[in-house]
Amino acid sequence: MRFFREPPAHDLTYSDVFLMPQHSEVGSRLAVDLTVDDPTGLRTPIVAANMTSVTGPRLAAALARRGGLGVLPQDGSAQQLLDDIAAVKAASPVFDPLVLVGAGHTVAEARALVADVPGALLTVVDADGQPERSIPAAALRGALPGSVVGDLLAPGVPAIDADDVTDPRAAFDLIEAAGVEAVAVRRHGRIIGSLSARSAVRATIYAPAVDAHGRLRVAAAVGVTGDPAARAAALVEAGVDVLVVDTAHGHQDQAVAAVHAIAARKLGVPIVAGNVVTAEGVRDLVDAGADVVKVGVGPGAMCTTRMMTAVGRPQFSAVLETAAAARELGARVWADGGVRYPRDVALALAAGASAVMIGSWFAGTLEAPGTLEVDEQGRWYSSSWGMASTKAVEQRFARLDGFERARKRLFAEGISSSRILLDPERPSLDDLLDMITSGLRSSMTYAGASTLPAFHERAVVGTQSAAGYEEGKALPVSW
Prior knowledge:
Elements: E1 2-3, E2 17-19, E3 46-48, H1 57-65, E4 69-72, H2 78-90, E5 100-102, H3 107-111, E6 121-125, E7 131-136, E8 159-161, H4 168-178, E9 182-187, E10 190-196, H5 197-202, E11 219-222, H6 228-238, E12 242-246, H7 253-264, E13 271-276, H8 279-288, E14 292-295, H9 305-309, H10 315-328, E15 332-336, H11 342-350, E16 355-358, H12 360-363, E17 373-374, E18 380-384, H13 390-396, H14 402-409, E19 418-421, H15 429-447, H16 452-458, E20 460-463, H17 466-471
Parallel strand pairs: 1-20, 3-4, 3-16, 4-11, 5-6, 8-9, 11-12, 12-13, 13-14, 14-15, 15-16
Antiparallel strand pairs: 2-20, 6-7, 9-10, 17-18, 18-19
């Protein structure tokens, strides 16, 4: 990457910069390859942050099916984390996951599991918990909240045999022939998944991120206190493909020691560590054994670190400096936080990041953990909170006694609860990924780059005023 003119002396964030169009021989967005040039095995440069309001097994599996990676958070019990890893590994790389509901569940309970959007299905289970029939989520429309799902008169959707799904185009043709938006998928007579027409189309564009056994890839976070090496070994034994050594201040002795201890185990999986914002921080973590360094202090939507402590750095400059330092050492960086639009993802990758971590943006999706709720205006929303907030502290230290939890709460930072509205046009993770990757692919064609390394090499960046940034926004109203 190079600047169009001399770079300013002050640090820059994403809204301060823009990409200049270059001569291009890349004729189509579909000619662009989004494979990541780091050892984590990503086919799409998007990582879901290890926030409890963002990444659970459902979102991690959905993202891996589209080539990205979900990082399961370290909060909660060890058994829950192992169960979540197993759930991702058991998920299909091809079919949409089942949203299960009992016949005795109320319509209100079912609505909390799935939104009424095209292609969404509910699968009703029998008394033994086995999938019995799949119905459109639209069947809940107009039903009384207190009525039970088993009393709905909605007919089940057609089913196709898994063995007939030889490729995405064949699947699309089967769904179209059935005259529906989605179908159930059976194997040996049992419902094992579902598939929508849009999912079939997406499977021709995205490649799943899978391990050597064809299972979806998943990452998990490890803290720096206690015995992080032992926890890391247990996670790898459970099937984790990437370890993320995570702490707010990654350039400290405790974090460096944790990375060194984990690397010494030679567990055979990439180690990601952070967070830092300087070249020196990158060098210390890479010297300790990190393959990838997470970059970003304070840019996240739920983070109040900069306002509380004045600590941090504008994210574009942080990524630019640290990515250059990492590449000199044979390592890479992930840009963690601060993206609000697809343009920001493109700028982070142009600056040298191999992937971009997204948090709160993904909290407002159907796949995010937690319960979907409806506000006073009838809009679907979910909740998000910062990982240093009081709410997160309560979850992380639930096993401590009341006095120790009270001490931890005194130093909490970040927003404990924020409503994240689901975009009615893009309610799912897939919908957001379509928007993000479409913008990224276009950015790469403007730069004349067909791969991410070429994008970093060819990108030309200019600086702009706040008015220049505003000029680039679409008008929300007519003339």
